[in-house]
Amino acid sequence: MDWISGLQCAVDYVEEHLTEDIDYIKVAERAYSSVYHFCRVFGIVCGFTLGEYIRKRRLTLAAAELLEKRVKVTDAAFKYGYETPESFSRAFYKFHGVMPSQVIQGCPLKSFSRLTLKVEKTGCNEMNYRVEERQKLILFGYKKRFEGVPFGDDRERQEDAFFRSTRAKQWLLRGASHTPDTSYCIVNNIDEKGYDFYIAYNLDEWTRKEIFNSAVTGVNFMEQMGFEQIMIPSQTYVVFETPKMRRPIMDYIALRKRIVTEWLTSSNYIFAEAPEVAVMHWPVCGESADRRFIEICLPIEKN
Fold first, then answer.
1. 198-251: per-residue pLDDT in tens?
2. Cα-based angle 189, 194, 200 (whole degrees, multiple of 5)
């Protein structure tokens, strides 16, 4: 079974059980996949999590039944998996913008249609990559919990805002780093609600040890900066590089999705449960700034 057919079988299973407790293990089994790998690929291909898909489909169907007066609000709440009518009403309002009791008044409603995945034949594109074993790496940085999936518009928006609002922290860590032209973006702890996104630098062991020591730094605010050590374990990674240019961000965004939709799905690898790393080779000024590039490093294992 090819990967598109597998994803579609999983979606069909979800649709058949929307009014039941959906077991993610059984969903992933329809795609002959682990839960971890299925949820990652589903999120990247579709741009939203499986949980988000289930929630929006349930609220769409609930609205249709309320509009046709086939169920009462309380019955719809329990039918579509909500513990109380109040929790159903809050979710309904957040999605539709109206309360369930207002539906029969002819209020505008939202519809989230059933997902159908299709194979799209495109040109035979070349992609340069390498598979390599990377040794354990200890980095130093700070994080924010992002919402949604690590690929798509939500990631782009949150990442851009995070970088713009924490420039002082970046400048501080760049000055402390022994490789100031190289920084790291790390994605870890992915679940249905979101993931941890880190901005980090490679500091030597002495600096990591003494950076909170006011007798060494001469300042007493370092512990308030939210810095922490981030350990990247030894892992097999597939590594792709953007073209070298002054602003490779758009290529970086497009390449992330191509890796999964084109390379991963035709390889003998699946995602491994380890951090994703983007290595930002980012000279600040001069002619070297025209040769910036980003390494996208995705953790993999044999399928």
1. 999 999 999 999 999 999 999 999 999 999 999 999 999 999 999 888 888 777
2. 55
CB 174 within 8 A of CB 183: yes
What distance in Å separates the CA atoms of residue 230 and residue 142, rounded to the nearest whole number? 9
CA-closest candidate to residue 292, choices 239, 246, 252: 246
Backbone angles phi, psi at 59, to 5 degrees: -70, -30
Q: Whole-structure pTM over 0.90, yes or no?
A: no
Quick one: fold of 130-302? Answer: Multidrug-efflux Transporter 1 Regulator Bmrr; Chain A (3.20.80)
How far apart, in whole angstroms, are the C-alpha atoms of residue 183 and residue 170? Answer: 9
pLDDT for 244-282, tens place per residue?
A: 888 887 778 778 778 877 888 778 888 888 999 999 999
Are residues 283 and 257 in contact, defined by beta-carbon separation less than 8 angstroms? Answer: no
Nearest-angstrom CA–CA distance, 47 and 128: 24
Q: Quick one: fold of 3-105? A: Arc Repressor Mutant, subunit A (1.10.10)
